[in-house]
């Protein structure tokens, strides 16, 4: 089992790993110039939109990190081993040596700064960076509140046997329509990407919410 587009030469680390991590995917090859023996690991489940944003950024920017899968359907995010990494019991999470970090937006920012990525991902100029961060905040508070809740009431919650309702779905749809209108008329009104002419981590965060629909 591999991520889409992953070559057969990509390594899997399974020996000596905690039992909650049933499979591991290395983004960078050991013989790749990008590989630096990093201890940085991002824990994800690709069913999660925020997890996909972090994974997509790591791959698109060629970051030398490990991606480890945490199965939400098997409740691996609630095991003691994983709660020691992210006490909130959610994905994604990051571990860099002894340092751990929850929340996808914070993880995206941390990776961008740590690996000194190309400026378009997370601009150094204060106003441009503030625009990216503003778009990320908007995505988390406005777009996600509609998109994720709609997906929960219509699909995910039902598959998991959790409480759902058509009223909840209708309310989420209203929030989503408002967010999509704002995306078109505000964030994308003057440029092809939300923060200017180049793709940023905010765009990845937003597109992973939209592709779920």
From TrEMBL:
<dbReference type="InterPro" id="IPR036249">
    <property type="entry name" value="Thioredoxin-like_sf"/>
</dbReference>
<dbReference type="InterPro" id="IPR036282">
    <property type="entry name" value="Glutathione-S-Trfase_C_sf"/>
</dbReference>
<feature type="domain" description="GST C-terminal">
    <location>
        <begin position="125"/>
        <end position="213"/>
    </location>
</feature>
<dbReference type="InterPro" id="IPR010987">
    <property type="entry name" value="Glutathione-S-Trfase_C-like"/>
</dbReference>
<protein>
    <recommendedName>
        <fullName>Glutathione transferase</fullName>
    </recommendedName>
</protein>
<dbReference type="InterPro" id="IPR043377">
    <property type="entry name" value="GSTT1/2/3"/>
</dbReference>
<dbReference type="Pfam" id="PF13409">
    <property type="entry name" value="GST_N_2"/>
</dbReference>
<dbReference type="InterPro" id="IPR040079">
    <property type="entry name" value="Glutathione_S-Trfase"/>
</dbReference>
<dbReference type="InterPro" id="IPR004045">
    <property type="entry name" value="Glutathione_S-Trfase_N"/>
</dbReference>
<feature type="domain" description="GST N-terminal">
    <location>
        <begin position="38"/>
        <end position="119"/>
    </location>
</feature>
């Amino acid at each position: 089992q591999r991520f889409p587009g992953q070559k057969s030469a990509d390594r899997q680390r399974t020996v000596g790993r905690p039992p909650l991590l049933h499979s591991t995917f290395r983004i960078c090859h050991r013989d790749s110039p990008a590989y630096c023996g990093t201890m940085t690991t991002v824990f994800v489940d690709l069913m999660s939109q925020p997890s996909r944003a972090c994974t997509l950024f790591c791959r698109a920017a060629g970051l030398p990190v490990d991606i480890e899968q945490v199965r939400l359907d098997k409740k691996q995010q609630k095991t003691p081993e994983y709660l020691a990494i992210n006490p909130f019991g959610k994905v994604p999470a990051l571990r860099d040596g002894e340092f751990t970090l929850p929340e996808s937006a914070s993880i995206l920012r941390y990776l961008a700064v740590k690996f000194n990525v190309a400026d378009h991902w997370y601009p150094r100029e204060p106003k441009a960076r503030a625009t990216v961060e503003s778009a990320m905040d908007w995505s988390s508070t406005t777009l996600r509140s509609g998109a994720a809740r709609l997906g929960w009431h219509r699909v995910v919650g039902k598959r998991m046997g959790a409480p759902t309702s058509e009223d909840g779905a209708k309310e989420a749809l209203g929030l989503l329509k408002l967010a999509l209108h704002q995306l078109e008329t505000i964030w994308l009104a003057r440029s092809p990407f939300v923060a200017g002419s180049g793709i940023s981590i905010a765009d990845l965060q937003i597109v992973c919410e939209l592709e779920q629909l």
